[in-house]
Amino acid sequence: MQGDIVNETYLKDIVISFLLAGRDTVASASTSLFWLLAENPRVAERIRDEANEVLGQNQELTSCEQLRDLHYLQACVYESMRLYPPIQFDSKFCLEDDFLPDGTFVKKGTRVTYHPYAMGRMEELWGVDCLEFKPERWINKDGVFSQENPYKYPVFQAGVRVCLGKEMALVELKSMALSFLRRFNVELAHPSHHIPRFSPGLTASLRGGLPVFVREIKNTT
């Protein structure tokens, strides 16, 4: 009986950790995604076209299998987080003396910080168009989403430290964005003045929020 209580408490702790860890990060990723889509309406239109091809005109999403077939939508989500990762920098502490892949010695107890925000904007990693929102960079010649090395794109961390909620977060982001974009257009309220500025904190959040106009798409069929 005691073991059951401990296991139930442990399970509740895991569920709460998932919910809390995913709340602000998914909100941050959603805000950045819609900002970029408002700036790039052709991308939003292509998401709608892909959804119509995969799901059918005006048909609802009904399975995770369908979601996995939306390669361009997946590419948009990844590209958005390349430029605006929900966690802009993170740190790890070295438990034992070790070496980085380039041969740099790291002493036990050393704090090592990496910066996904900066890494996503490095020309040597992403090319001369690294500052452009370009979902096509994630699509191979067959039109299929192609994953980059997670150490190059550490938005969800990598290796044994990979985010446990990664797949759940992607499902949330993609299903929410798809449902919204098939019904509404989003336009920046102040397009000429809005430059993303972030508030201090572990999770990236836009200072002042994201003022937009949301307009229903009229069905003409």
From TrEMBL:
InterPro entries to which the protein is assigned, alphabetical: Cyt_P450, Cyt_P450_E_grp-I, Cyt_P450_sf
Protein family per UniProt: Belongs to the cytochrome P450 family.
Source organism of the structure: Solanum verrucosum
Name recorded for this polypeptide: Cytochrome P450
GO-annotated molecular function: heme binding; iron ion binding; monooxygenase activity; oxidoreductase activity, acting on paired donors, with incorporation or reduction of molecular oxygen
Binding site for heme: 163
Keywords: Heme, Iron, Metal-binding, Oxidoreductase
Listed Pfam families: p450 (PF00067)
Lineage of source species: Eukaryota, Viridiplantae, Streptophyta, Embryophyta, Tracheophyta
Cofactor(s) essential for the protein: heme
